[in-house]
Write the structure tokens for this entry.
Amino acid sequence: MTGVVAPAEGWELLEGAVKGAAKKYSQDRCAARRLADGRAVVLAVADGHGSAPHFRSDLGARWAVDAFLACAGEFARAAVDHDDPDRPDDDSHWWETLADLRAEARRLPRLVTHRWLQRATLHDANAPAHGRPWRGTEGPDLTAYGTTLVGAVLTRRLLVCWQLGDGDVVVLDAAGTPYTPLYTGPDLGDETDSLCAPEAWHRARCHWQPLTSEGPSGLLLSTDGLSKSFTDHQGFLDFAAGVHGRAHELGMPAVQNRLPEWLAHAAQFSGDDTTLVGAFEATGPAGPRCDEPPRT
Amino acid sequence: MSDTFDLPGGSMASRPVHFIWLLDCSGSMGVNGKIAELNFAIREAVPEMQSAARSNPGATLLVRAVSFASGASWHIDEPTPVDQFTWEDLHTYGGTDMGAAFRLAAGALQTPPMPQRALPPVLALVSDGQPTDDWRAGLRAVDDTPWGRRAVRVALAIGDDADKSMLKEFLANPELEPLQAKNPRQLAAAIRWMSTAVKAASTPKADGAGPVQAPPPVALDKGEGEDPIW
């Protein structure tokens, strides 16, 4: 027996974003998708740096999410292809392929970065950020497009999260208790790693968690505008647990309706764009299970 | 719109930005009314500072000041919310012990007393002369603190006798130059601009992109019609 417990009705998705107070427009982008007939979920948030040297970071954030969806989508499909729910007693194939999936998970930051670099380089060639076409041997300066990226893939047997730069991943275990697998302690100021840094994939962190017993009951990804509005880390974890609790208590549509208001309240304190995506075990009728077209 | 009482999670608050004036009160600042003009300029810039703080709702601006001459001391030692900030006049009293001022600031930039949850502090240095103590050791003390390394730094040279190469070293960014004021109107414009550096402190940046840059310097041509007197 595998011991794996799949969400009875699949996953319900949550998505919300608000502009930072006093900002003209948001530089955050996000996506939440069900893939492979609802057997996998892909989540991503990207936070364009937004300051004057990063004046195209809204584009950078959009392309970061696009690149992640493309690469993580392939990864998610491979993960569910090797997991046959019709043969729950024969999981030897799954364990044989897990090493390959882990290698793919390690490669993914590099693939995403290369896709992002190609897109940003093309844009910069057509519309040079610094007014004249790039010439040289070291590649163009893509500082203008700088962005962070946080993404995750969740299937019934596997949870993988990646993070480059600031932002947060909160996993809620089967009992609804939150934990932050990629948290490295409080940031000092607003410095962050960025996709625009040289060989940025080396700065990516990865959380790899094969699910051998009860899997998580929820997963939340957010830009740093959310966690930085709380006076301490525990307050942020309590928020994640509270969202999860309200989703169970009131249903996901009610939480989805209130989410913009909650995020707007947080943005008053962080001053930053604030974006959150999530997936929770469905408690009501299953949501759509077919592939959705990419959108950001 | 419904209330937010059902907002889950802990308490929320904006993050503090600590703004520290480092001000030269050496005897030469008493020549040709420089200290009086500096006092006037800082007092006049307070509304500008308050306005900059209001336009950055994610930051709570707290202001204090160090004066240095023969030694250094806190002129305003409590981090004061900018809305309650008022200016008490400085007076001249001796040499230019800038290193002592840096060491005093470095003590305040340790964590604690500085909280980890904050935006980068602002260090605003104003001088009209050559340091008379070991300013490099003082600057190293600032650079040895996590917040000192991340501080937004702005510097103003008053008159031709100020040590501009030293001020440039303080800025820690080869692309930045200290501002220069040679008459009261230039001084007032420069102090107004320095007072708004909170905007730079509340701006995110990619790691490794160098020290946080202050906003582009204002043109100080408002004083061009006046002769340099310093």
